[in-house]
Amino acid sequence: MTAHLCLASASPRRRELLDSIGVPVEVCPVDVDETPLPGEAPADYVARLARAKAQAGARHSPLPTLGADTAVVRDGEILGKPRDREHAAAMLRSLSGRDHEVLTAAAVTGPAGLLEACVASRVVMRTIDAAEIDAYWDSGEPADKAGGYAIQGFAAVFVACIEGSHSAVVGLPLFEVAAMLARQGVPIWGGAFRDGAMS
User: Fold this and answer.
1) Of the candidates 198, 199, 195, 79, which has an alpha carbon nearest to the alpha carbon of residue 148?
2) Beta bridge partners of 72
3) Distance between CA atoms of 185 and 188, rounded to whole angstroms?
4) What was the pLDDT predicted at 109?
């Protein structure tokens, strides 16, 4: 199937989410420095990285290009990917039995210019005991995940509720992304979706 969009990400989750709304993609991973700037607010951080990724990807493809970034935020602090078992365990202990925020920004280049959206979701975790944290690390799933967990995987059993967008917590806010893609002329569902509504 011919690609209609360049995805500036190696994330299989983001590709699967785009597949779920019928958007075939050309995967073009980019190398962007993800170090937060001094004093940078989490929402500004994810928006900046999404823009940088989209713009970097666009330099390698004539297609409209999507960049995205997701951050797990606890008490205003960005929780990145765990460095090792102890770091992952510390993050999960800090999220256990309380709520936190997940911010996902997406940016799309194309004929309509650079379009952007940032979505905040509230995630509430049940209490997670030490044995569960150890077993979860041993599964291999949290090693490369922001905040040390993947809501679409085994960690779903830890999540008591979500207020916001489930797909954004996974890695891409599909409601907002579909509207941006339609504005850039990228067909959704084989062309049945236009400008944020079914044709």
Assistant:
1) 79
2) 79, 102
3) 9
4) 98
* The one catalytic residue among 31, 33, 69, 75: 69
pTM as predicted: 0.91
> Which residues have C-beta within 8 Å of that of residue 13, sequence separation ≥ 6?
150, 152, 170, 171, 172
Query: If you compute the radius of gyration of the chain from its CA atoms, what whole number of angstroms results?
Result: 17
Q: Give the three-class secondary structure for 51.
A: helix
53 vs 6: CA distance, rounded Å: 11
Per the annotation, the verdict on 31 as an active-site residue is: no
- Tokens in use for 166? 């489930």
pLDDT of residue 195: 53
Helices (DSSP H) in the chain: which residue ranges? 12-20, 42-58, 85-95, 130-138, 166-170, 174-183
pLDDT class for 189, splitting at 50, 70, 90?
A: confident
Give me the count of residues in the chain: 199
